[in-house]
Design a protein that fits this description.
heterodimer, A: Alpha-Beta Plaits, 7-stranded mixed beta sheet, 6-stranded antiparallel beta sheet, disordered N terminus, B: 53 residues, mainly alpha, 2 helices
Chain lengths: 797, 53
């Protein structure tokens, strides 16, 4: 019993992190930081400790910088955020990325125990959203957000959320259409059944009655559920495009007309069952194709990266101002870890700005007073004061984003296989239909019409239209299980055609800040202090790393300093001559270690060699498998960073395929050049600096360590852990395409078999009624089994 | 056998009621969130014995 108690003590009761040396205790429970303890104390005061019983350590570590929500006091910002408000209550919806377990649901839905002014709160787990209704007088929006923040659930409020989403709910009532189609299909099947078994002569009146009812059920199918196909076929015809919707619309129309004619003239029972089944299956196929990821957004842009408001200094008073109201000449205050929203001149403070997200440059940049700081950088360090020189809408980053090339619509993407095939299919179908009409016309007009309609009915490409959606959506869910989220089913096919892969460096194959440095310096403290002083003068990334490593020293005065770019530094301190740099530069006999991933910085003082620093940049685990793609795929590295890691990266990329110091615009041009050579290019990147390249490429993949974090607009989002599966993904996408080909063949076989009946003009409704669902069933089962097997083969399942 | 008219009338009516119920549920957002209620139903309203833990 005591043993377990000791074990427990090392883990934070709230978040499950390891507790560091100093222990923070409350109620005999240990916490890793004050933040976690604070959350616990709030919860225990409100009698909400059940939070901890549903899951062990459900909390999220609170060890992060405190956030400022002062802007939520501005009425103009509040107005944009809330859904509804009157004197009594207000309704607001927040996006909370930290929602991850049932405890979260329980706690957030019991908010009113912490503050009774909250009437009601409801979590949508998949969307990670919470809908809250609260007393307008009892609690302000600012207090509500602070309350959520205090219990560890900080809502993410960004400019994109403030801008109300338009046209997000463009669902065209597909579910309703399916419901209606299903309802009619079921009833028609029931009423057609007697017809299949044969109705005796005595019960002929029933046949009439069933026929009329069937016709009645066909009306909503054609006039409501199937309208989409008519519309699409018509617009495509107007644009002189032949796609699969035309034969589908023709099939639906012919089925209906012939059914109506047969029933009204009492000449037959019609094809009501086939018609209803066709529309129902087609709509189900459409539904399956439309996979949505509630928690992901593929359309993000700079607006979700920027803050909602910024602190403006006016007559020595700070005030939150919405970003859109920022004007030239205003003084803004940017705190640690805040983003600079507009191009501005530095007025006060020590600016160390991290532009990694905008340019790919991995080391924070020092700015001097009076220098222009471009928007999109993140300040690290103390708060700084800036004067805005350009409004947000015209700042560097925004302009970049609104660049024509960046906002290009993606119309010239690849045509999908089914689009290509259906064009020929439609032409062949129409030829067969008309020629059978012309063939029978001289002999028997009635038979000619019946053959013509029968061809259009039987060749209606239902199975053809279903094979792509079912295969691709099965493939999509396989990718999904491997943390690779594709925007839609067409992306699978694009993936299969990729020939060239372009990778970004910072954040894509390296993880920011994940470097380890080993000191093999044999010198004294005084000597280390000299090394520190020399490196502190340099802006080179390696010098920076050494400074970070030796940060306990103070800086000495340097009498002379000289930096040879790409080689090293020589400096004079109190008569000591110091060389820091490459092995050659320092004149050492020390052999460079064999590992290519390590960079070494050698040091000599007064021409006496004292050792070296070994710096290792960690790459994502997947890089070795990605490297293996190299001969069959073109592999390029495209980085905004300086080339100081060129040597370390040469084990993965050949030297001529590595490009450094590329601006976002140049990256885009690079992709374009590759495409002009006829390559299908896949771009993998992570930051805003890759956004243009991601859009330009045939397939843009945003890589991220946490899918809820910001990622630039792209076709797919890949979790960093799954980068190593990239070769398997590429192979699997090809498998999926082959499955589509095979299922096309299967459905064509069905069509050919059916056509042999149809051209003779003797199509019985029973054959049509059997053939259509049978082919559909074959396709659905074949595609799902085959996709599953392919995924097994590629070890993705 | 004319009872069949009545029976078919009943079955169609019943099916229509179900269709109507589905539409009602659809319009009232019952299908908006298909996951959270499955978790919510397992959470107890009142903490049973909080002090024990």
């Amino acid at each position: 019993m005591k043993q377990t108690a000791i074990d427990k003590q090392t883990i934070c009761y709230h978040c499950g992190n390891d507790c560091a040396d100093e222990q923070i205790e409350l109620d005999q429970k240990v916490f890793c930081c004050n933040g976690c303890r604070e959350v616990y104390s709030i919860l225990s005061k409100s009698g909400l400790c059940n939070y901890y019983t549903y899951n062990a350590h459900p909390g999220v570590s609170q060890e992060k910088a405190s956030k400022r929500f002062d802007y939520l006091k501005e009425p103009s910002i509040i107005k944009d955020l809330i859904d509804y408000s009157d004197e009594k209550f207000t309704i607001v919806t927040f996006y909370i990325p930290d929602i991850h377990c049932s405890s979260c649901i329980w706690l957030i839905e019991h908010l009113n125990r912490v503050n009774p002014a909250v009437h009601y709160s409801r979590v949508d787990f998949l969307r990670k959203q919470v809908n809250i209704r609260f007393d307008t007088k009892g609690i302000t929006l600012h207090e509500l957000v602070m309350l959520l923040y205090s219990i560890g659930y900080e809502p993410l409020i960004s400019l994109q959320d403030v801008v109300k989403k338009q046209a997000s709910d463009k669902k065209d009532n597909l579910v309703r259409k399916i419901a209606v189609a299903g309802f009619c299909f079921g009833n028609v099947m029931l009423l057609s059944f007697p017809e299949y078994l044969g109705i005796s002569v005595y019960e002929q009146s029933f046949r009439q009655f069933f026929g009329w009812l069937n016709l009645l059920f066909c009306l909503p199918i054609v006039l409501y559920s199937g309208t989409g196909y008519f519309k699409s076929a018509w617009t495509n015809l107007k644009n002189k495009v032949l796609n699969i919707d035309l034969p589908l619309a023709l099939g639906i129309a012919v089925l209906f007309v012939r059914t109506a004619a047969e029933i009204l003239t009492h000449t037959g029972s019609g094809f009501a069952d086939t018609l209803c089944g066709l529309v129902f299956f087609l709509l189900v196929g459409k539904f399956v194709q439309r996979k949505t990821y509630y928690h992901l957004s593929f359309e993000r842009d700079y607006r979700s990266f920027f803050p909602v408001a910024v602190q403006v200094i006016n007559d020595d008073r700070e005030k939150s101002v919405p970003l859109s109201d920022i004007q030239v000449g205003q003084r803004i205050l940017i705190h640690n870890n805040e983003i600079i929203p507009a191009d501005a001149i530095l007025l006060k403070g020590d600016a160390r700005v991290d532009f990694s997200f905008v340019t790919g440059e991995s080391v924070p940049v020092n700015k001097v007073l009076g220098e222009v700081v471009y928007a999109g950088g993140r300040q690290t360090g103390e708060a700084i004061e800036l004067e805005v020189v350009k409004p947000v809408s015209q700042s560097y980053l925004t302009r970049l984003w609104n660049n024509e090339a960046f906002t290009r619509t993606q119309e010239n993407r690849m045509q999908t296989f089914s689009e290509k095939v259906s064009k020929y299919f439609t032409i062949v179908l129409l030829i067969i239909a008309f020629s059978s009409f012309i063939f029978w016309f001289p002999f028997d007009v009635h038979r000619a019409i019946s053959a013509f309609t029968a061809v259009l009915i039987i060749a209606c490409p239902c199975a053809l239209a279903l094979s792509t959606p079912f295969t691709m959506s099965a493939a999509l869910s396989i990718f999904d299980k491997n943390f690779f989220y594709l925007k839609n089913t067409a992306v699978v096919e694009q993936l299969a055609h990729i020939k060239t892969i372009v990778l970004d460096k910072t954040g894509t194959i390296t993880i920011n800040g994940d470097t380890s440095i080993v000191s093999l310096i044999t010198g004294s403290d005084a000597e280390k202090q000299m090394i520190y002083s020399v490196c502190a003068n340099s802006t080179h990334p390696l010098s920076r790393l050494i400074c970070q490593y030796l940060n306990s020293y103070s800086k000495l005065n340097i009498t002379s300093y000289y930096e040879v770019p790409g080689r090293g530094i020589t400096a004079d301190i109190d008569g000591h001559f110091i060389r820091v740099g490459s092995a050659k530069f320092v004149n050492t006999v020390q052999l460079a270690s064999s590992s290519a991933q390590k960079t070494e910085v050698h040091v000599s003082i007064n021409e006496k060699y004292i050792g070296y620093f070994s710096i290792e940049q960690h790459y994502r685990d997947g890089m070795t498998t990605v490297k293996s793609l190299s001969p069959s795929y073109g592999l390029y590295l495209l980085s905004g960073d300086h080339g100081h890691e060129r040597d370390a990266l040469s084990s993965m990329f050949s030297t001529e395929d590595m490009f450094f110091e590329r601006t976002p615009q140049e990256k885009l041009e690079f992709i374009k050049q590759l495409q002009q050579k006829g390559n299908k290019v896949m771009m993998i990147g992570d930051g805003l600096n890759d956004a243009g390249a991601l859009k330009q490429s045939d397939l843009g993949i945003a890589i991220t360590d946490n899918v809820n974090n910001f990622s630039p607009g792209s076709d797919a989002i890949l979790d960093g852990r799954s980068l190593k599966k990239l070769p398997a993904f590429l192979k699997f996408s090809k498998d999926a395409l082959h499955i589509v080909y095979i299922s096309f063949c299967i459905s064509l076989t069905y069509n050919v078999v059916g056509l042999s009946y149809a051209v003779s003009g003797k199509l019985s409704p029973l054959i049509a009624a059997i053939l259509m669902p049978l082919s559909t069933f074959t396709i659905i089962s074949f595609t799902s089994v085959a996709t599953h097997l392919a995924a097994r083969k590629r070890k993705l399942l | 056998m004319s009872i069949i008219y009545f029976l078919i009338g009943c079955s169609v009516l019943l099916a229509l009621i179900f269709l109507g119920a589905f539409f009602w549920a659809q319009r009232h957002g019952q299908h908006d969130d298909l996951y959270t209620p499955s978790v919510r139903i397992l959470l107890d309203d009142e903490p049973e014995n909080e002090q024990k833990k």
